[in-house]
């Protein structure tokens, strides 16, 4: 019998097929297109960044994957359409939050919400970062983002603390998961 999360009607055993790849230069444009949706960006500043920001981000992720074996990967659905990203990287800020830790995260096209893509992709991320020797990960989540909180719970992450965020205007939730050894 499959279990169903209270936040989603997607049974755990019927998660969709999702493919992750190191982001290409073209993915900067795809990410911009996918994230150019106020609902997708509700907890990330309200709107997509300029394309140049995604160009820099995808370039940085290619370098990080080459050096460490993980990054924010481009997420593809069953039809090989770009639907967002997921992956892991060092926490990118040095003025607040889990400085020095590896953060996992995901951002998904609204058309794919509620179907298990973020959970499936995040599970693949955990497998890959564990294989790269990362002992634990964190996920920083806006407290109003019930969908992302639900993904952390499905991954077995637990709330470890909060960090006041001036940029977000809230206490951001920091979930943690040990990856064993």
TrEMBL record:
It comes from the Bacteria. It holds the Pfam family Acetyltransf_3. Residues 18-180 form the N-acetyltransferase domain. InterPro entries: Acyl_CoA_acyltransferase, GNAT_dom, N-acetyltransferase. Signal peptide: none annotated. This is N-acetyltransferase. It comes from Streptomyces xanthochromogenes. The lineage of its organism: Bacteria, Bacillati, Actinomycetota, Actinomycetes, Kitasatosporales.
